[in-house]
Design brief:
Radius of gyration: 17 Å
Strand order of the largest sheet: 1-3-2-4-7-6-5
CATH class: Alpha Beta
Structural class: alpha/beta
Shape: globular
CATH topology: Uracil-DNA Glycosylase, subunit E
Distance between the termini: 33 Å
């Protein structure tokens, strides 16, 4: 690959059909829908990243939700995980509003860019290792294009492991921190004179938030710390 612009990268992502299982699934979901969204015209394609190309904060999720991003066409938009994420981003000044329900809802990110390890909605929200590998070049290209990133927040263990591997593959070296996934863990990577701080967070999935594994206070700490590291 080696894209010169976000526009080129977005077009490649939207038209990607590398993973037959994922293509079959997200197109099936978009066609059959569910009752409460029967009047929606589902996006039903891979999702590009979203936000400011000059962003200093990068958030890496797992994959679009079948009736969230796969429906609306924007990362973390139209599902409960997005409700948590955008409420918190707004609280700390990274978004102009606390809600994200559709691509035309007026949401804008401030100094922030959101992406995911896998760009297609996977069955049961579980991409397999081959699908993660197939999609990894897109995350690699984003990391190369996002020249101003100072902080990366990874949401969940797969996001953490994949992002760390991608940083190492493009020449970054870990200079501080523990290569283990746990909420609030911080690592620092360096390449030439550029440093990137990575912060681990539990994913704001329904399972994690409903069970209390991830609380609002815990999630707030992640983005409060992100803001401190950016200054």
């Amino acid at each position: 690959m080696n894209f010169k612009s976000f526009e080129e990268l977005e077009n490649a992502i939207i038209n990607c059909r590398k993973c037959a299982r994922l293509v079959k699934w997200h197109e099936k979901v978009a066609k059959e829908k569910i009752a409460r969204f029967k009047n929606w015209d589902y996006w039903g394609k891979p999702l590009p990243g979203f936000g400011e190309p000059s962003a200093q904060l990068l958030i890496v999720g797992l994959a679009p939700a079948a009736h969230g991003g796969n429906r609306t066409g924007r990362m973390f938009t139209g599902d409960r995980s997005g409700d948590w994420l955008y409420k918190t981003l707004h609280k700390f000044g990274f978004a102009n509003q606390p809600i994200s329900i559709a691509k035309d809802d007026g949401l804008k990110l401030n100094n922030c860019y959101i992406t995911a390890v896998v760009r297609c909605a996977p069955p049961e929200n579980k991409p397999n290792p081959k699908e993660i590998k197939n999609c990894n070049p897109y995350l690699t290209e984003e990391l190369l294009l996002l020249e101003n990133v100072k902080v990366i927040v990874t949401l969940g263990q797969i996001s953490f492991a994949t992002t760390v591997k991608t940083l190492l593959n493009i020449g970054f070296k870990k200079i501080r921190g523990d290569l283990k996934f746990y909420h609030g863990n911080e690592l620092t990577f360096c390449k030439d004179d550029k440093e990137i701080n990575l912060i681990c967070s539990y994913h704001p999935s329904q399972r994690n938030t409903f069970t209390g594994k991830l609380t609002e206070k815990m999630f707030d700490k992640i983005f409060k710390r992100s803001k401190e590291l950016i200054k």
